[in-house]
Amino acid sequence: MKIRRIAGFAASLTVGALVLTACSSTPGDTETTQGSAGGPSTGIVTANSSEPQNPLIPTNTNETGGGKILDLIFAGLVNYDAQGNPQNEVAESIESEDSQNYTITLKDGWTFTDGTDVTASSFVDAWNYGALLSNDQLSSYFFEDIEGFSWDEDSELTGLEVVDDKTFTVALKQPAADFPLRLGYSAYFPLPEVAFEDIEAFGENPIGNGPYMLDGEGAWQHNIGIDLVPNPDYQGDRTAQNGGVSLKFYETQDAAYNDLLADQLDVLDAVPDSAFGTFEDELGDRAVNQPAAIFQSFTIPMTLERFSGEEGTLRRQAISMAINRQEITDAIFQGTRTPAKDFTSPVIAGWSEDVSGSEVLAYNPDEAKRLWAEADAMAPFTGTFTIGYNTDGGHQAWVDAVTNSIKNTLGIQAEGKPYPTFQALRDDVTNRTITGAFRTGWQADYPGLYNFLGPLYGTNAGSNDGDYSNPEFDDLIKQGSAAQSIEEANTFYQQAQEVLFQDLPAIPLWYSNVTGGSATTVDNVEFGWNSVPLYYQVTKS
Amino acid sequence: MAWYVGRRLLQMVPVFLGATLLIYAMVFALPGDPIQALGGDRGLNEAVAAQLRAEYNLDKPFFVQYLLYLKGILTLDFGTTFSGREVIDVMGEVFPVTFQLSIMALTFEAVLGITVGLIAGLRKGKLFDATALLVSLVVIAVPIFVIGFVLQFVVGVKLQWLPVTVGGDVTFRTLLMPAIVLGAVSFAYVLRLTRTSVAENLTADFVRTATAKGLSRSRVVNVHVLRNSLIPVVTYLGADLGALMAGAIVTEGIFNIPGVGNTLYRAIQQGQAPTVVSLVTVLVVVYIVANLFVDMLYALLDPRIRYA
Predict the structure, then answer these.
(1) What Gene3D superfamilies does the record tag this protein with (chain B) (predicted)?
(2) At B172, which CATH number?
(3) Do B43 and A430 touch (CB under 8 A)?
(4) Which of A468, A324, A300 is CA-nearest to residue A385?
């Protein structure tokens, strides 16, 4: 997942105004300024970003600072349009009979900016590099489904085979219907041969095949920004409509927002908490506030005392119904969060707001009390219900509100349990030493329902922090992955969600919105499914 | 004099060792595993995490880690950041920026603080004095980030007289507003120190003597009053240079300045011991050198102070 650096402070509860903003809840509904669709403009668009935390190597980048740059300077097999639909970019076709063995052919004419051709080997070599254990790549888990991948020793991806210059085949360990959908993620980008000669130097001055390229050696000024210019040899549909993109790195969102107000920054993709209540007035129709592919919840470990078995199910449902999500998103987040309707995100194709069982997400204090009493009849609840959170990410306000909501509705003791840092919280979660519920969040790597379900709730899955296990759920996920099409797969995934609504391994809270805007200097600002503006189509004269 | 300077420089060695050890221990004691945090909510696979821990020596006991770090420093190898950059390169980028900012802030507070303080001291009890004291009181009372945000919004966003943020454009013009904000509180202190000192010295015997000798008013004030009044002010300014460099975190955040403060803040958050320790150690050295420099200045200001 792409990690979003969250700076700034929690919007305080004392902010009195309940501003009801129009949160769009339909996928892909964008509030942007549509300028005249003329020819390419020549101005250089400036946008906010943050210093990449790693060298600019696709398989070693797992946060948005580096991801934004890679998406602009590389072109993968597929890319995603604003709605998150995949479309072939370098790939001519991606075919499979059984959702397990894929044949991928590439389009002709694609080159890297050093003049070399983009061939099947460009992909196969890059993926092998990314998957090799001793290369320590942060995104290596993207290759774990490919035949030959190992977490225990260095091993070649034997499932990758180069057929000819423009064709290669992929054999997966098990069927994955959404494999083509994943291929737009940066971990799957191709690398030119020169990259492997000195990967560290390459990470400093990467050479790609995307709509932009670095503006010469040293275009990446550390902690300051990076200058990108259009790539004249780019072959795809994301042709630059401006004279370049200059990403400026900000340490605080407040500074970036003030720059935007003064027209010293063109595009902003993160409004600071302090401006949540005002930015839509200040920016008018240049403001953006729409759901993002970020799902927020808190997880109640399956082993938590009084929260397992039939009694636990009743308590989980009671707690979910005791939370007034609408009021909390309005009061604390000023409408910059959208109450959750499921376990995924509305920007994902296949999302539905009425999955059977999702009634437990509605605020229903009477039913909550009844279910809690029913559970208490089996065995009485004593002690305090806690939600662990890290204090360095602006979570205190909502945790307090949620626990208050639970406390007032159910009449039990409930409170937040603060951890000083994100690391400290994760330590306790990873070691399973946490003694209560804890906050969890998930940002999608690629626009697919599976990405929100399999890795989080599958038995023994990597991010299954609550140790949830239900054979029925596992089976539906497996059937979905073996399906012949994404649409067919999604029906299984939605059934899997029905199981989750029964068991509630995590309590869905809300979807984060992307909040941003643009200055008066630019037009055609639209945000992609992953909350990153589509910089290439921004025009500036 | 040389012997004195030599002795002071020698004192830096234990201070340096003590400072690095303390800071290293504090970063080590930070809760949480910085390597796992690299993976975000998803976490990292244990196999990858173990390799990365070994790469950054994080799998070793505290003293081994610390000694390895010290050993590196002797060969000018300050370690690497998690993004694979040499810490010494990072320092080479951020220190000049913060140094320039601090010098501008120091100049601002010294020139303006001493001038206003002198006038206020000479006109003790008059309107100018009362106004200056009131203004300094307000500046001291209001937190620095409030001054920063307000100035940024009014001068930068609304009036657009000066750039809102600095970013990569580190020039006199862009640093002007941050320097004023950074030096604001110290300006108020310098003003008050100078004023009190001047007012006190005006009634001193040597000033009465100088006036009785028939020296001009300007010579009495500039040579006899001001020079003697500057000793406490210079002491304060010397110590302040270190404080300004280390204390620029808030200002650098508000104005997005790629300096020591921002880098330090991020390094602490990510638990990057080599970066934190190296940056802070250099700050400690700056502090010591600045204070040594101040002690040297005493001799210049007051010939009665001698170092043997």
Answers:
(1) MetI-like
(2) 1.10.3720.10
(3) yes
(4) A300
